[in-house]
Amino acid sequence: MLNPGDHPEQLSAVAAFAVCDNASATQPALRVRRDPTFSPPVSAQQWVDVAMSCLQRNNVPLERLMSMMEDTSRALVDDEEEGSDSSPPMPTAHHSQHSTTDQTQQDDDDSYCVAGINAECEGGLAPSTTFPTVVGSRRWLAARFLLLGSRLGVQGGTEVSLREAVRLAERAVSAHCCPLTILQLCTACYCLGREVKESGGRSTLEGRVRKLLEYSSGLVMARNMSNPMDAILLAKQAWLSALVGEERRAMEIVKFLLKRCQAEAEVLVLLALLHSASGEHEEASKVAGHAGQMYPLNVLCGVVFTALQNMVDDADHRKQKCVENLLAVLVGRVEAASKEAPQEVSSTSGHAVFPVDDSAMKLFSLDDVWSSGGKHKRLIAGHWALLAHVALLVGCGSIAQLAADAGLEYISGVQGEQKQAYCDLLCSAARVKIDLIEGSFDYFLRQRRFAQNWGAAAQLRGVKDDRYMREQRKLLSHDEVLSLQTMLGKALQVGSHCAEAYLLLGRLDLLVALGPGNVSSTRETHLVSAAHYFQLAIDCSPRLTAAHEGMGRVREEQGAIELSLDSFASAAQFAFGEPIIPYERFLYVVL
């Protein structure tokens, strides 16, 4: 009979299973009692072992896991305060191998420490205590566990988990103020801003992110790339700057990177998007082409290059065929990448990864080490979603449908939640059908105008109108509309702030309102519903051009011409300065 007291050296390993899941503590191979009682972890080393065991299990609730990271961090801090002079506790599998590199990384990052971030920079949320000038090795490791807990909260994606992620990131900054901890705080604040419901909450959080990024990026650039991690930090800071509307700051960081180190694929992709946002589409296409030559297997480079080629080339059948061929190649590339090992994807795609020989960085880089290829799964799911979006952007509905179906099939076959990709793929699948219905509307209107302008064709107009009405009733049948609403409802169940889902519901109601054979009351009801969904989309994403355009069409149909013109003016204003592909579509790469 196994008794924890008889095997003290196995206490941490056994306690890990007890803390993670009491039901799984009884293992036949261990021959333990039916209801064993294990002592909770006591030492810092035991807490670290428990946390590592929890991370490697798939059935630990997110809230419980985040709490475990915070408790482990607290145990490490308490252990240091007791005056322990021993080496910092590390996971037993890596302790002897990486103690030197961890100390080196800690020494490098200590040079970032400052006396504190002033309240103006922190947007009024600065920690009440000043930051230490010298950070002990255990306290630094404690900050890493707080970072890891914050990262888990960001991946949870709910408002509750994101608020907890911000809190843990703030604690990490308090424990060790450096660009790494500030970067995680920026990431958590930005993601929370996408989910908050309070009026003005998003703008407040994004304003905080802007100030923090200005402060931390200045710290990193002042080092002049003397730290190996600076390139990774700056790349993420550049992406976050673009996401919060600081394109000028993002361009400054990108140019700084390109002058001092080899350009990563993600940096070149961001540069191309920044050029497209400023209207320099030829320059953006050149950058994307150069990125494709440097990283021929990188999906991001191929997707951006395809979108830019569709914009800068003259519109003809050959160009459309060329774009379809490029997208078909990308479909095959993502399909092949989905079958590769995570290490192969990281090495061949041009995607920067954290050093594998640094245990402290492993604690921060959750997906690379502790989640069994979670980063690889997120990248593949995100690639499918991005590919489906771009295929719709360039008018290749068949490839968009193929990518959406393949992405949904991939997500259903892998462990772990890919919430954002799932929402995007469902929306892309629904948009393919909605675009088809809108296309039939536009075709009929063109034919009708042609018949009105030519008297010889007037005799055929009645026949064409009857055929059109039959086709429209088929496309907008009750079952088809219900199917699309159900699909978009699933997306909103996963992501309640999915602006595209609300946008597509608005477009669908607008199409039903404009459909043939509707009585006046039914038409008005669907117009009101469409306006409601368009407003929800605007609330979730204030710069969503298509939502403002949809609202303008609704107001036009309702006879409110002035309101319609205001909506169209807002759409034109937001369309100016937008990149060829929204920065938000690349968020899965940044996180």
Automatic annotation (TrEMBL):
One of its GO terms (cellular component) is cytoplasm. Residues 74-109 are annotated as: Disordered. It comes from the Eukaryota. InterPro entries: TPR-like_helical_dom_sf. This is Uncharacterized protein. It comes from Trypanosoma brucei brucei (strain 927/4 GUTat10.1).
